[in-house]
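can u do me a favor
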């Protein structure tokens, strides 16, 4: 008796078709909306004694991870975060639709923390958000209610210093808070704990959110109970006094002396600050 040969070609084909993945039809409107911040953890303006875990900025979609830092350089995502007070760069991690932030040394008790997310977060289609946010909270103690204001000016150009770095040092604890000035050089840093502050304006040329040696800066002291820093004129500090670099004769009665460095704009030169001599015997001219 010959054995029977049975095939299941048709049912197997149906099984393969039933397991095929269904894809949405191509086309449709492109996504041109930037990622939207929908929540933060913890909530702002609250006190959290014994806080554990990172701060989270939560978006409505997956955000771009950005380029890696490597060899001591901060990643693109880390450059969008300012955490203060902290002495080291914070730990900034990407978790799909969340950006997490925490200090390297961990959350310290009885401090006012300020976590700022700058504009620039993008999604996977390179849609960029032009909005940022600030999360302020304490790890014990009263909630802060002090806001420092002022304007940073570039001394060499006499113009407002857009996106200047502003650092406020709380005395005597030496807790350092940071913020970036806006396009007009103006800043508003707070809410912070009440007290005496030394406020510095820095032309952060390499955008590392730190005051480096040869970057122009200056600082003012704000007494307890005061909040206005006024204008902070930034310049490169060194130990070399200004010197004459050249003289341009205007006419028979005037000349312009060019100096190698900018002068303090508050300096007022009087006639007694200059002397004129007649050559060749250097006879003083009254």
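np, heres the sequence
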């Amino acid at each position: 008796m010959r054995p029977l040969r049975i095939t299941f070609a048709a049912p197997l084909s149906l099984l393969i078709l039933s397991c095929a993945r269904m894809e949405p039809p191509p086309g449709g409107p492109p996504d041109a909306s930037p990622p939207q911040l929908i929540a933060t953890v913890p909530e702002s303006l609250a006190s959290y004694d014994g806080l554990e875990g990172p701060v989270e900025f939560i978006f409505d979609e997956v955000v771009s991870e950005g380029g890696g830092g490597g060899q001591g350089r901060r990643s693109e995502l880390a450059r969008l975060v300012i955490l203060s007070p902290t002495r080291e760069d914070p730990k900034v991690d990407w978790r799909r639709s969340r950006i997490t932030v925490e200090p390297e040394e961990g959350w310290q008790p009885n401090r006012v923390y300020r976590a700022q997310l700058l504009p620039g977060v993008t999604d996977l289609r390179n849609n960029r958000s032009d909005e940022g946010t600030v999360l302020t909270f304490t790890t014990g103690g009263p909630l802060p209610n002090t806001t420092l204001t002022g304007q940073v000016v570039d001394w060499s150009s006499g113009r407002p210093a857009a996106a200047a770095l502003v650092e406020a040092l709380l005395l005597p604890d030496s807790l350092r808070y940071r913020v970036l000035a806006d396009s007009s050089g103006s800043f508003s840093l707070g809410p912070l704990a009440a007290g005496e502050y030394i406020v510095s304006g820095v032309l952060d040329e390499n955008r590392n959110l730190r005051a480096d040696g040869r970057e122009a800066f200056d600082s003012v002291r704000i007494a307890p109970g005061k909040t206005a820093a006024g204008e902070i004129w930034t310049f490169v500090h060194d130990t070399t006094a200004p010197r004459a670099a050249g003289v341009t004769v205007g006419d028979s009665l005037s000349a312009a002396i060019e100096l190698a460095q900018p002068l303090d704009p508050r300096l007022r030169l009087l006639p007694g600050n200059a002397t004129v001599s007649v050559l060749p015997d250097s006879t003083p001219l009254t």
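The mean pLDDT is 85. hope that helps!!
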